Every structure is written in C-alpha cells, then in structure tokens.
Amino acid sequence: MRVVAVDPGTRQCGVAVFDSGRLLRAALIRAGGRHEGDATADELVHLARLVATWAVERDPDYDWRTDRERDLVPGELVVEQMVSRGSAAQRKGDQNDLIQLTLVSGLIAGILVQRAGARLYRYKPEQWKGTIPKPKRGEEYIVKKRVTSRLDAAELAAIVPCPASLEHNVFDAVGIGLHHTGRSLVDDRRIAIAR
After folding, report:
1. pLDDT digits (tens, 9 = 90+) for 13-28
2. I need a labelling partner for 132 at 20 to 30 A (CA). Which of 123, 162, 185, 186 fits?
C-alpha cells in the first residue's frame, strides 16, 4: 500500500512516498511566489495541489477512483499535526501561522482523502520523534541522523537534495512516514482519524 507522509508548511512542504513500508521518494515541494508576510489563500491552495500532484504523479483533478494504475493511489495520508502550547503570551510567532498550517494540511487531505479515498492519520511531533530538541544554529539536525540510520542505500538515494536550511522539512516527512509504517524513531501506536 502507498503511504504519503507530509510535513506541512505555508511556503513549502516536506513530502515522502512509501510503498509496502519502503521509501520510494522524498522531496521539498515549494510553491514559489512571494516570501514576505502571510501566504494568500490562493498560494496555499497552489501549494496543496503541488504536493498532491508530486505525491501521486497525477493532476489533483484526476479521478483516481477509476484509475487503472491503482498502485499509484495512496491508501493512507500521514500528516504532522500542528500543536499550540502554552498561553498566548508564551507562544512565539504568529498564531496565523498555525491557522495557515492547518489550512494547508486540510487542503492536502481534501485532495488525497476525498479524491483518492486515502485514510488520514495525524501525529503530534512527540508521537513520531519523541522529545528531540530543535538544533541550535550550526548543530546537526538529530532527526536527520535518526532517519538516515533507518534507511538503506536505495532509500537514501530516493531523497531529492534541497538547501540545507530547509532539509528538516523533508527529513520530518520521512520520519513521520517511517513511524507510520512501523520503522519508528519512538515506540508509539498510530491513531486513525475518522473521516
């Protein structure tokens, strides 16, 4: 069964595609456009469509339910669940970022769940990566190290290179997918979200 794992963002998303538990490909999908201020609704829709198109190698308007090449259709979509912690005064950043991330996740799910019939699963960061701290400037991303230790040479070669400052998005998507397919960085069970 195909599994699409997504680390959502408002300007780019990390996406990983698995088949029968093996990583087929992973990349950073970028929407392009302006990079200042909040993303517009059209930019978020465009990003979601790019992610879906890349993940299933089909136009997002394609009716996958009648596809003869059913093996390309994802059976499951795995998305990192955004979590807001602490009081409003303690939170860093803009709350609109959380709203936009939720919207991007919903748009991707709308395309892949509604059109392809995929089941949706969501994981909080601590469910799939435990309590790994964010790296300080100049430090190696610990999740990358843990993820790459679980991949063979062919799977490592399936990761499309991207700028080092953005590769955490791709490795997070791969990590979420590994967790979902039973090759977890931590020992937790997946929780299906009812459609």
Report:
1. 999 999 999 999 999 9
2. 162
| Average predicted confidence (pLDDT) for the chain | 78
Token code pair at residue 91: 């939170």
- CATH of residue 84's domain is 3.30.420.10
Nearest Cα to Cα of residue 125 among 81, 168, 84, 90:
81
Alpha helices in the chain (DSSP H): 41-56, 95-109, 116, 125-129, 142-148, 153-157, 167-180
| Residues 169 and 14: beta-carbon distance below 8 Å | yes
pLDDT of residue 178: 95
Reported in sequence order, the residue ranges of the chain that DSSP labels E, i.e. its strands, are 2-7, 12-19, 22-30, 74-80, 119-123
Number of domains making up the chain? 1
